[in-house]
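In keeping with the milestone schedule agreed at the kick-off meeting, the structural modelling team has produced records for the first pair of proteins. Each record is given below as a sequence line and a structure-token line. The laboratory manager (R.T.) confirmed that both were archived under the project's standard naming scheme.
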Amino acid sequence: MIFFTKIVAKTSLFCYDLRMEIDIENLPKSSNALAAIIVDLDLKLRQQKNELELSKSEIISYKEKYIRLLEEISLARQQRFSPSSEKNIHQADLFDEAGVELPDEVKDQLVDDEIEIKGHTRKKHPVRRPLPKELPREVILHDISPAEKICGCGAHLVRIGEEITEQLKYIPAQLSVVQHVRPKYACKPCQETVRIAPMPLLLLPKSAATPELIAHTIIAKYCDHLPLYRQESIWQRLEIDLPRSSLCGWVLKSAELCEPLIQSLRGEIVGHRYTQADETTVQVLDEVGRDNTTKSYMWCYRGGNLSQPSIIFEYQETRGGYHAQQFLRGFKGYLQTDAYAGYNWVDDNQDIISVKCMAHARRPFAELAKLTKTPGMAREALTFFAKLYRIEKEAREDHLSYDERHERRQKYAPPILDAFKQWLDHQLPKTPEQSKIGKAIRYCLAHWQGLTNYLKDGSIEIDNNKIENVIRPFALGRKNWLFAGSPSGAKAGATLYSLIETCKANNVEPYQYFCTMLHRIRLCKSDDDYRNLLPQFIQF
């Protein structure tokens, strides 16, 4: 309103100035003089018009900034206070998306967006699952007294059954000491020959730790998110002196021994045709030439055989895309990532086809839709995503093979994607470039080819959620141990996280795996030996 007032005021002043400067009743009779007055007035009118146009553009600019600011505030509230953020009274007017006229061909794609609700039966109250039968049972008998076993009529009561109530009892860690006894033999006559059995090959020579204890330490930190100082406190309560420095040494040395396993995992990823990649931050202390507050990164890759996936974490100091380029050298196939510019090198690699994550494209629309209960562009966009994901859900429920999923996608997904593309093109000129809805639309259009490349192969996922689920435990652990004490500690963590998450992806119990693997790894002599110790190939 301020700018509108200024415009009106400027116009009024200008007209007043014209009346003051020109005496209409005493105009000069000379044509040259009249022409000069007209030229002067025209110049002033042009200047005034330019000023008015500038004022209008300023109004539009400030209006867009105001809308963006309200969007950011509302989104921040929604992210921090999720349930209550939907009640913001300004949200209905924030994005002014309602009432937008759509092309007929796009409307046709939106009319059948009703969701069918399948019939269901009401669930019963949850019932506690029975405890595992293989656990040992401690039986405590609660019987009535002999006097109570005699009926009032004088007859003895007969046992007709029993009621059993089971409780789970926790027994603290049971520790034992393994003694390696090697008798010595000597020759008494010559007193020169002394013989003793060779010491078996130990995981960590001159260490008191068995593979089982080291496996417990690794799983406690990288799977159960217990930092080493907490583990030290737990051992102290058990009256066992295991200082943090010893625990750290076991972890570092064990990770060094597992390095050949990581090389085998990389071979599995590079040797197959579909890989997902992502990265997350990690704080590492004592990096050469860097402050302790500087962010470093854990790169994550998921690929290999589709039925036996391999997962690798890789510590790097920076987020430069050349790290992924170096890791994936020799890879040929589909690489699925988000839209981070560090993966742009893929566009120049003829052996790799870039696939973008549909969940990343959907996310900003979903955030905007939460902010208003009125129909708008964000909700309209979500209808297209819902249809695409419905195809994926039905394929999973029908247990389709990759070829069958490919056929279903080719049949149903292209018409939805074509309509979505038309909708995006139609809405593009109506949205400010820097607004949230404008950015969301432009993101989809900028990465359209990558977003639709999942249609080329049934083995490709529609989004990058699987690798994001892999990174989630790392992020949870990071909240507990906060930082890696050194670059070597970060590399060790990357190695052990790789093996643990590969275990999870292949339904292998991590502790059992590490116990078995650490017992055998010293015996490995060839690449095949190490490959046979990977979680997806190990034999228990």
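The second protein of the pair:
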Amino acid sequence: MQKLYERIPSGVERQDFSLNSIKKENNNLPRAAYFCMEYGLHEKLPIYAGGLGVLAGDYLKAAHDLNLPVTGIGILWRQDYTEQYIDAEGNPYDIYPNYNYEFLNDTGVTVTVTVGGDEVELKIWHTDHFGNTPLYLLDAGKPGTKHGDFTARLYSGGNTDRITQEIILGIGGIRALRALKIDVDLYHFNEGHALLAGLELIREKMEQMNVSFEEAWEMTRRQVVFTTHTPVEAGNEKHNYDLLFNLGANNTLSYEQLVKLGGDPFNMTAAALRISFISNGVSKMHGHTSKEMWKDIGNRSPIISITNGVHVNTWQAPEIAYNQENGLWEAHMKLKKELIDFVYQKTGAQMNPEALLVGFARRAAAYKRTDLIFRNAAVIAPIIEEGKLQLLFSGKAHPDDDIGKSIIKELVQMDRYFKDSVVFLENYNIKIARLIVRGCDIWLNNPCRPLEASGTSGMKAALNGALNLSVLDGWVGEGVEHGVCGWLLDEIPHISLEHADEDERDLKALYHILLNEAIPTYYRNRPQWIEMMRASIKMSSEKFSSERMIKEYYEKMYQKAVNSPQDQ
């Protein structure tokens, strides 16, 4: 496989991936263990729910490309997040097949954790099949076995299930590293799910070094960095202490000690902020939001910003990489036709390759406002019916999210009403995502601000020449220039509006841009459109690669934590 720098065409500025501020010798770099509840490496390994997992997969791929000493720790989910399909009435429904992952390597090593008084044996699997650094996956057994349901399904059940999964990831993950004899300098908690690994590190030090809780806590802080991904309340878990103690999540620590970390009720994000040396939000805007959101948490780590990035070799089509200067439109049309052929095979819908195609693919959730574009039928219906605009949607709702499922049902209704011009693709996965970001003309992004911490789908689309049409949220303000490589619904962020006012203002802006800028440019000024495509590719390649992202993690977080003075 060609390295990124080998396939960047002339005329495009190359990124500096030399890690010039840190030593190049692999053995002099901090050895990092990366903890995440999900990993999206490939559709053949469906142990991810969405953007968090795909980001983690891209992180491990970038680490591999740059030969960085990173080890991934996760869970082997036997039943995926969900396979989600549409019934005859347009309702989403979920199925949970048991997967066999024959390509995984059996390490022959097991560890145990205690859950609710039971000793749970965890088998450790390994994979580096997808151009990634080593990823170790913890497995409680096949669904239906004694403890197999613990690792059956990602993000399933209530708080009991969630805490059980977090015991396996965090406590089990540390024990896996010890059993595998993998030396680690630093632990990266990718979201609060990994927090219990910090409790295991504290317990180890208290028992093995005979130090106090406070001393163990301080030593642990110098080994941990933390990434927070969302300001959405549901993404920042709180648990009551009765449940934590009943399940054994306290890991020998007392109520008084835990309160010092996470308060009462126990806040996983607050505890992660207090147990880490440094933390980060995943865009400049999200970093600012996080500082404001957690400003009252005493004794927390400083919060910086490291903007997400995507793995270029995974997401950028080779046709685009090799034809940015000449033949870009032809390369794009080839990819667009491949997408349209896939849509036809899956749905029977016959979309028009010559008509403007807008893509929207991500988790179905209320704050993402997937249906915003349809809210004034008098404006949008004629554009669609005249054949000037096509809309392609995909995404899953959480199995227990009735609102998310109702959003999908509305999209399916639009699909059936507009037939070939509006399509919803069921059972969204990495394969579908790859086809959509490569084949669409425009990428639509209109969440409620500031709830989209970063988002990466628009970066992937931009790598392939799609033009982002977006609100100013997440990463967008760092890359998209209105009229240059896409369009912004607002040029100054508005985050204090009531949602109703926000919806009305954004809808007007969306229609204005479509009718007066995007559609006229696409049909009447193809040279300008192609120049905007080139600018979009250049913007995403230079600013939003996972290689740039992981370089920043090493320089701004890993090195600083490992090299911090002991009396700091």
